Each structure stands twice: as structure tokens, then as C-alpha cells.
Give the backbone structure.
Amino acid sequence: QLQLQESGPGLVKPSETLSLTCTVSGGPISSVSYYWGWVRQPPGKGLEWMGSIHSRGYTYDNPSLKSRVTLSVDTSKNQFSLKLYSVTAADTAVYYCALGGGFRGWFDPWGQGTLVTVSS
Amino acid sequence: EIVLTQSPATLSLSPGERATLSCRASQTISSYVAWYQQKPGQAPRLLIYDASNRATGIPARFSGSGSGTDFTLTISSLEPEDFAVYYCQQRSNWPRTFGQGTKVEIK
């Protein structure tokens, strides 16, 4: 049974880069021909898909983020990562990693989420 | 971008009652809708995928229907643990998008 866990700083300064990693356990990240994704949720608000990456590096991302997102995958560490550049207070959110967002489309399972606050 | 509009925003019901949640897409999306349940402080949980397929371990009181632009999540008889926020999500096009959510609260 796959399990996902997000990690990274909980506080990022405005204009800096938010970096998060998702560690997958319970199976090799490359063992499934699916995509691995990031979804965020500002406090008290709804869900926003940010992007998804295949274990071979193919990506889809959300144009609403205006090319501020870079996704990467490290199969040797069974991890995939998110970088969000030039953050503002509007990027304050709980960030979730999840299996999905590619051709299968839905998201399951999810990590527990990590709150990232953008503040000086 | 496909916009998903959920209604109502809030549904006030009692345990044992039937809940009917709606999700309308801005364009046709075949049956490519999923439904999630989210409780406070928790990650969303997949309930239904491709409009009517229950995910692993999801009780039979949860059912989904619809195609094209109109979709419904039905909870046949609300249990205390079902009071939560529910989101729909489409996988017809990129970017993947979610509805704004329906909160099912105890009346």
C-alpha cells in the first residue's frame, strides 16, 4: 500500500522559492505508470491542482501558476519534488502530494499535507 | 479551463437523511468526474471516480451518477462520520480542476 509524506520548510519569505519533497513508501515510484501530483489548499478555501510528473520526467502543470512551478523526480530516493518560485502571501497553503493527475486523472492516495506560510 | 460548480454550498441534514450533492461542468466532460471527502485537518479522500465507481473501501451508501455536464453524489443515509466537505474534480482536460466544495453539516 503506497504512502506519501511531504517535507520541507514551513515558512518561506516573499519573493523566495518554496521547495517541497514527497517521499513515497510501499513501492517503487517507478513501478506504476502513473503521474505523481501536487495539490494545494489555501486556509479555508478549496483545492487547486498545481502539476503532476511521471517517473520518467514527463510533466503537466497548471497554467494559472504562470510558469512558476518546476517538478522533478528522483527514482533513486523514491521522491518527487515541487519548486514554486517568486512566492507571495497568496501562496500560503497546505500543500499535498498525491498519486494522480496524469491520464488516470484522479488523486489517490494523498499525503497528509504540509502547511507552508509565506511571510517575512 | 473547465469550471466545476457545486451546489449547494452548504447542506444541513440530520443523521439518517439522504444527501444529494450536485456538480455541474462548464463543458461536457463525459464521465470523467471524481468525488472526494475532506474532514477538518485531513487530506481529501477519494470516494468515487469516473462518475460512478466507488474507490476501494468506500461504503455502499456513497454513490455517484451523471455524465456530460451534470453529476451527482448521493449519500443514502448519513452517518455521523459523513459530515464533511465534498469536492468534485474533472479529469477530462488539463488543467485538472476541482469544484469549490459542498459542506454537509449537522442540522
User: Anything to note?
Assistant: The first strand of chain A starts at residue 3 and ends at 7. The radius of gyration of chain A is 13 Å.
